[in-house]
Amino acid sequence: METLQNVLTPLTVGATVLPNRMVMGAMHTRLETLDRPHERLAAFYAARAAGEIGLILSGGFSPNPEGVMEEGGPLFNGRSQLDEHRVVTRAVHDAGGKIVLQILHAGRYAKVPECVAPSPGKARINSFAPHALSTEEVWRTIGDFVETAALAMEAGYDGVEIMGSEGYLVNEFTAERTNQRTDEFGGSFDARIRFPLEIVRAVRERLGRPPMLIYRISSIDLVEGGMIGLDVAAFARQIEAAGADLINTGVGWHESAVPTIAATVPRAVWRDAIRNVRQAVSIPVMASNRINTPQVAEDLIASGVADLVSMARPLLADPEFAKKTRLGIVDEINTCIACNQACLDRIFTERTATCLVNPRAGREIEFPIGIAAASRRIAVVGGGPAGMAFAINASERGHRVTLFEAEHQVGGQLNLAKAVPGKAEFHEMLRYFRVRLDKLGVTLRLGELATVETLTGEDFDEIVIATGVRPRVPDFPGIDHPKAVSYIDVLTGKVVVGQRVAIIGAGGIGFDVAEFLLGDAQESLDAQAFFRSWGVDVANAVPGGLATAAGHAGTKRSVHMFQRKAEPLGKRLGKSTGWILKAKLRKANIAMTAGASYDAIDDEGLHYTVDGKAHVLPVDHVVLCAGQDSNRDLYEHLRAKGLEPRVIGGADVASELDALRAIDQATRLAVTV
Ligand code: NAP
Ligand code: SF4
What we know:
Family: In the N-terminal section; belongs to the NADH:flavin oxidoreductase/NADH oxidase family.
Strand order of the largest sheet: 3-4-5-8-9-10-11-12
InterPro entries: Aldolase_TIM (IPR013785), FAD/NAD-bd_sf (IPR036188), FAD/NAD-binding_dom (IPR023753), NADH:flavin_oxidoreductase (IPR051793), OxRdtase_FMN_N (IPR001155)
Cofactor: FMN; [4Fe-4S] cluster
Domain NADH:flavin oxidoreductase/NADH oxidase N-terminal: 8-330
Shape: globular
Domain FAD/NAD(P)-binding: 377-644
CATH class of the largest domain: Alpha Beta
CATH topology of the largest domain: TIM Barrel
Number of helices: 24
Bound molecules: NADP nicotinamide-adenine-dinucleotide phosphate, iron/sulfur cluster
Helix content: 25-40%
């Protein structure tokens, strides 16, 4: 049992005592807008409150229509909206928690034609150009923040957080790059920080105490023309003087070219920028970004970087993060692997957020946790993500589960994923699965190939087939040449490929293999390697903390990726992470060819044709990453015997297979058996 004292110590914030130092950070889920009324949102937050999180910060609500994230985005500017907020605050309070409303004006990031900013100038990530606020409009906007804060109190929130980071309106005022105003809100440093200071002062005056007033500062802007560290510290002191109870820290702007929260970012890598804020003030400071385990949180507090930590995605992954920390069962925490696949990538594509490792997130109402009417004997064949997720969820419901896995370890494709640079977090996912299988007493039959005879010879009430996938082998001359190797052999280290490599297939695995072949494993684990690679001066001595990025530091392998489709390679990668991968591969001069047809592999290398022109690429190896086909042999054999097994994961549908769909499907099935 691991006891982590610092994260469990209560903390007084202004006039409020928080029971521990773990906070659920603000994150939009789209439940705020796509799912009215707010019952699902209320159930989502209530589960986190019941899981003993010290404080919840809501997703950001705009104080006026021009500040919304997009058409129909979260807006809180009238009494008619009070009731739907009350549903949420009541649910959180009933579950024993506290919740603060974040007020977020999106400024020039607002995807609406009427968006506004301190100065003219379109953001690279928005097609709408902002209107520059007049002085009178700036004062009116400050008033809008105050009105929303007052409404938040009426709705039952325990305080408000002013969103001053990530490049939204307030942050746009403080940075020279977006503030060229000549009135009292621009020009000098003091004038640029006046807008947030006026907001904090006016909100404090209107709310009085005890409501908590939190300001989220940009600890390092990571854009040209951002603040330097000395200015951040001076600004933080003024925020304290203006009446804030707590300073939360943000990292980077949304348009920044440096990744800040993806799995490729080492854990707690922004600690120096956060410590700079903490050393400047006497009120508590909260750390954020890439904090996903209680141990990392404990270390940040114990080493004086911050007084408490904010975690958004880790609370999607496990609503009981804080409770399990208190109980000393941290190895049972379902850890966020920073993949962004089911949360940010879904939000960015107009779907409600959930979580790859926890499909219940955001769907608490449709996935009730309960014991089955009768306990049944269930055989699960296949110990990949689908089989393990089913086994765990079915066992939690009181069933007696036996899990067959032909390999001597569980994990399936996850064992491959964890070998890829930047995917070390998959180790945590495997740890969680193993610990839960063990604690729930699932009978593991490892190294055993389940057959029709095994399954029919024992008295199972239900058989679930999760036998996964087999790599697809393309059909063209020379595919059996020794130069042609499967991605599995490469990622498991069975084959060490030569210096000149072609990759056939540019889906998630083709990109994973390309990254693997570059040998940059350290970048996601070692802070200095990460800073060098992405050009970050974390001491923030230069504006925005941007230094010159180093060239590619890995092996000098020459890698050429191919696909048959004519579209750009990587077009279908996740929205929030694909750009990072593509930027890395570009830097490493990886060649990419779309619209290829494959003619042959022989001693010369790979023969292919593009636009009717034949080419030959001399290579040592051709790595086949051409997708997968379902492994359904056992399923078909059982059906032929008249049985009706269930089939889940890759064995059900191989195309677009990923752990997200596999775990979701397995969990859905488990709650019905
Ligand atoms: P995939 O995404 O289906 O990609 C397969 C690739 O092989 C495509 O580029 C396809 O492009 C090519 N291909 C398909 N059939 C072929 C054939 N007969 N001959 C030659 N080329 C062929 O599969 P995957 O890359 O193996 O990934 C499997 C799943 O794991 C995906 O759903 C993916 O989302 C998931 N995954 C996700 C990540 C992530 O980071 N999010 C990482 C790894 C894997 P053309 O048809 O254009 O040639
Ligand atoms: Fe974390 Fe991935 Fe779940 Fe998002 S989907 S919360 S990044 S594990």
